[in-house]
Amino acid sequence: MKVYQPAKRFVPPPPALRMSTGRVRFMLAAMGLLFAGLIGRAIYLQVAQQDFLVNQGDARFRRSLVLEANRGLITDRNGEPLAISTPVQTIWASPADMEPVPPAKLRELARLLEMSPEEVDSKLSDHKREFVYLKRQISPELATQVMALGIPGIAKQQEFRRFYPAGDIFAHIIGFTGVDGKGQEGAELAREKMLAGSNGRRVVVKDRRGHIIEDVGPVEPPRDGQTLMLAVDQRIQYLASRELKSAVESNKAKAGSVVVLDAHSGELLALANYPTYNPNNRQGVTTEMMRNRAVIDTFEPGSTMKPLSISVALEEGKANVHTVLDTHPYMIGPARIHDVTDSDRLDIEGIIKKSSNVGASKLALMVSPHDFWSYYDSLGFGRSPDTGFPGEASGRLRDWKTWRPIEQATMSFGYGVSVSLLQMARAYTIFTNHGEMMPVSLYRTGSPLPGKRVLPANVADEMRDVLIANSEPGGGAVGGRILGYSIGGKSGTARKLVGNSYVADKHRALFIGFAPGKAPKMIVAVMIDEPTAGKYYGGAVAAPVFANVAGGALRILNVQPDQPYNNTLLPATTPIPADF
């Protein structure tokens, strides 16, 4: 039986626990204001501060990675690689995303990177920096060991390092790239845009440990650089470098250069300088080693200028190859023009064979200063040869209006005008192209570039025959003769200007010639600077380099001999004619 219990009555709280209506309203208003503030703050952050916050988030977790383009290959004219890019790794860090590295791991990281722990710690301790290189261009194997340490905030990135298989043989032609992969010298600098291509881009989001979470947007792939084919022949370049080094060392010379041109196209088959350097390892390399002397150094060419200066007198009709001149010493004002070995009378062939300053200067003075200057100007003296080499020299050819007779006379035998060896080699193309001067090309051309008419064909061919005769017994080019081949050439010996005067114990020995003589395939120009081993004449010092380089190159190119193999060189005791 249920027992009825009456319902409990509501008993109001005691007065101490009662809340007044005003207090309730106050609390509700405060809570409303709080929620309104939160909503306002959210709106402010989402609208007014949106760009700032997005940028801050991107700065902490969003990264733009460079996808490096593979630099273009450089090859010789036969496709042999001369400069290639090999993949390497770069280790970098984001100090802003890193926590302190445990000492043991810091020491191991420093050991792998061949750095001191203090150096590594200093790079990682600046937490305001979001990117810092630790070590660039290391092997992939070493990069794997670094990443195996598992240090948050440290990452690797693929780059490419330039490698030059031929080492110092092509250093002055190709140049090199810096650690950032940009060309610094030679063809690497001249064709930077073509070789470099364009880098790609990948935008990613990373966590605080440096792990990629996702890509943000499409990946922009890199565009690799193009292949650059040079005109040089690796075999001839090696030959020229070897012979030049041997000549500089055996003659105890300061330096030397060799230029080899295709006699008809003007393409550069070889260019060597000594001393040189290894572009793969430039530690200890001096500016003297890096000088591309054949292109940027200028000098007075001495008697190698005589075939050029005599040609203008023949062109102007002031003389012909049969003209005979009195070559006794004579005076121009207070200056005495004379030869090292005096002769009574010489024709044009004799002037070249005896290297007569008197004969060359008399022929030059038959031509007006303006016409003489115009001829030298047409040969490109005083102007950049525009071959594509960085820093190529223009040389110096003064305005004819300021000339005195003695200056025009001395310019005929190579003093008072400055040129580079490359300019002189190019000038001799008029003798191998029937009076047309060919432009020098560092790069392989599909077909020869058009030449520039400088001399009438008959004058150029006559002077070519004179230069061939100069290689016969009694001529100054006998030291350049090649077994089995005819040659044409001219030696030169120029005293060096020190201060304001020429000194008797410092010379440049030169030889410029072509081979085979009757059907030239190449021009070889040689300069040996300050030989000090007892010989200094161009015919004794530079001519043998020509013979070895041109002879070897003709055989490399399989050029058929045009002379019997008993065209032996004259004995070494045969006096070398003066060629000042």
From TrEMBL:
It is found in: Membrane. Residues 68-215 form the Penicillin-binding protein dimerisation domain. One of its GO terms (cellular component) is plasma membrane. One of its GO terms (molecular function) is peptidoglycan glycosyltransferase activity. It catalyses: Preferential cleavage: (Ac)2-L-Lys-D-Ala-|-D-Ala. Also transpeptidation of peptidyl-alanyl moieties that are N-acyl substituents of D-alanine. Coiled coil: none annotated. Its EC number is 3.4.16.4. One of its GO terms (biological process) is regulation of cell shape. The keyword Nucleotide-binding does not apply. Pfam families: PBP_dimer, Transpeptidase. Keywords: Carboxypeptidase, Cell cycle, Cell division, Cell inner membrane, Cell membrane, Cell shape, Cell wall biogenesis/degradation, Hydrolase, Membrane, Peptidoglycan synthesis, Protease, Septation, Transmembrane, Transmembrane helix. Transmembrane segments: none annotated. PANTHER family: PEPTIDOGLYCAN D,D-TRANSPEPTIDASE, PEPTIDOGLYCAN D,D-TRANSPEPTIDASE FTSI. Catalyzes cross-linking of the peptidoglycan cell wall at the division septum. Belongs to the transpeptidase family. FtsI subfamily. This is Peptidoglycan D,D-transpeptidase FtsI. It comes from Paludibacterium purpuratum. The gene is ftsI.
